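Table S5 (text form). Sequence records supplied for joint modeling of the two-component complex.
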Amino acid sequence: MSDMITIAFYLFAGLSIISGIFMIFTKNILYAAFALMFCFLSLAGIYVLLGADFVAITQLLVYVGGVLVLLIFGVMLTVRVEGKSLQTGSHLKWGGALIGILWIGILVQLILQVDWTAVMTDQPIEASVNSIGKLLLSKYVIVFELAGLLLLIGLVGAAYIAGAKIRTK
Amino acid sequence: MIHGEVSEFGIILLFLIGGIFFVAFGLLTARLIRPKRPNIEKLTTYESGEDPLGTAWSQFNTRFYIIALVFILFEVELVFLFPWATVYADQELMELTGGKWGMIALVEMVAFVIILALGLVYLWVKGFLNWERPMPTGKQYYSPIPKIAYSKFIKRRK
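The corresponding structure-token record, covering 327 residues in total, follows.
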């Protein structure tokens, strides 16, 4: 059982890294979007393996099902030369490489600092959706309703900005 | 270790692997078995027997973008409904609170949904959801001959 989980983890991790690298280096922007989909999917798999099932569902619903669709729509909506597939170039290569290396350095530093044996437990990981639901409806109910308000603001604002062209008609 | 409901995700993984295998197996065997003699006619895009003109890439209506935006926001709302749906009729909490828990959960979620429904109403009223239909372009033809002349002509032919 434990071995299966390890194998699955390396499968998802490898898939996310490969698709991430492909996404960065491909010139066709639509291929990049699909590579991003695989990256999101494998990240959802990793979340499940970490016992964060609610985060995994959110990842699947919001990122794979929503944000990606919006991204592809964004590609489809842009004005482009007819008959040419949309190409992307790379800019600021050195700056990007510098930030990437710095970030890897920070992560490695953190990984080496943490005492992993203390973190590891034999406690079984249970589904988190239930406890999240209980907390949302009791302890964090104001935050929950405020999240609804925030979504409303986002909805109205996004439609107002995106619909600027339509309103003038 | 992973237990309980989380391990149910293993079944989803099995379904995923099964699906990928099924499609890959079908495509691979088809590739191995089928004869491959392509020509220009065979390689063109098939659409109802018409010869395709231009490219498949055309600009989409901007309204799709707003619909997609609205869709994402309501999807986030749906994500919040998930944990609520698992606990709103929780047996243990119902007994502890004497049935008040279900009422509280219902009122809280209705308030949450109504807040977002207001957004939908706003969009609807402001006309963001109206779909603009393409109007036929080109001039309408007005015949200088009056309609009565036509009917007279038809009558005479009978």
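Note: Residues 126-169 of chain A form one domain.
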